[in-house]
């Protein structure tokens, strides 16, 4: 069994829980509470900014230009394309995107970011890829399943979100997710059982943290002593963020 198949097999219970999560089901059925959408975008904006920095840092560990290209393309994707799904959520919640870009990372987002920095700190490319991979993998699984269920019909306000992640999953043979799994397999061939075990743990924890990220947004789980942990600038913007773009009659 290829290592990437083992990773996916081990993560199956987590992937099932993600498919069944009320936030994710809400995307398929067309209704997610407004507060959950706002919290998600606020947290995801912060999370993706850290993601970019960690990818940039990973480039410093590489020698091969093709490998550098992969990380450079991923940074480009996050900066220029990944804002589209955020706009979909903002439009549905009727809130301006700019007002959601100043949040303090909530506990699970902070944990997920820290987990990725920890993977990067090991200096092992296998660990880094294993920790990053649940991010594109779980989203393409969600979008592909919901597309199969025909959840992306024209009356679903989340249609464009589903199509976006289904498209990035299908794009060319080397869809991002598949080519990274192949890369992981090449690296795993030369790894010891202990190194593979460590990479497996990074992968599974990131999968759990993907589930936690949906859960955190759905219940707006935040720091208990938020006032102490939030800067002036953040708390000011937080108040603005809940103003609707348009007035409800
Ligand atoms: C918590 C969280 N996890 C995954 C994604 C989706 N995503 C982020 S970057 C990227 C491609 C580059 O690896 C994809 C598919 C998200 N937005 N937020």
TrEMBL record:
Q: Name one Pfam family in it.
A: TENA_THI-4
Q: In which pathway does it act?
A: Cofactor biosynthesis; thiamine diphosphate biosynthesis
Domain of life, per UniProt, equals Bacteria
Thiaminase-2/PQQC domain: which residues? Answer: 9-218
NCBIfam families xrefs: salvage_TenA
Record's subunit section: Homotetramer.
Any idea what job this protein has?
Catalyzes an amino-pyrimidine hydrolysis reaction at the C5' of the pyrimidine moiety of thiamine compounds, a reaction that is part of a thiamine salvage pathway.
Name of the protein this chain belongs to: Aminopyrimidine aminohydrolase
Organism expressing this protein natively: Leuconostoc litchii
What would be the name of the gene that encodes this protein?
tenA
């Amino acid at each position: 069994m290829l290592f990437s198949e083992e990773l996916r097999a081990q993560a199956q219970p987590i992937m099932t829980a993600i498919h069944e999560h009320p936030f994710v089901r809400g995307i398929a059925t067309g209704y997610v509470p407004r507060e959950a959408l706002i919290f998600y975008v606020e947290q995801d904006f912060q999370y993706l900014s850290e993601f970019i920095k960690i990818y940039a840092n990973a480039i410093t560990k590489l020698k091969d230009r093709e490998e550098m290209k992969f990380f450079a393309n991923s940074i480009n994707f996050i900066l220029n394309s990944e804002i589209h799904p955020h706009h979909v959520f903002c439009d549905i919640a009727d809130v301006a995107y700019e007002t959601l870009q100043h949040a303090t990372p909530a506990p699970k987002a902070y944990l997920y970011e820290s987990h990725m920095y920890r993977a990067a700190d090991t200096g092992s490319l296998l660990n880094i890829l294993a920790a990053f991979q649940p991010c594109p993998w779980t989203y393409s699984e969600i979008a592909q399943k919901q597309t199969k269920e025909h959840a992306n019909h024209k009356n679903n306000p989340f249609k464009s979100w589903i199509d976006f992640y289904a498209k990035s999953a299908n794009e060319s043979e080397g869809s991002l997710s598949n080519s990274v799994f192949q890369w992981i397999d090449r690296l795993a061939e030369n790894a010891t059982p202990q190194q593979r075990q460590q990479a497996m743990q990074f992968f599974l924890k990131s999968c759990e943290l993907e589930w936690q990220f949906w859960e955190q947004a759905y219940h707006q789980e935040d720091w208990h002593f938020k006032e102490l942990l939030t800067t002036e600038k953040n708390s000011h913007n937080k108040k603005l963020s809940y103003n609707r773009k348009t007035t409800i009659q």
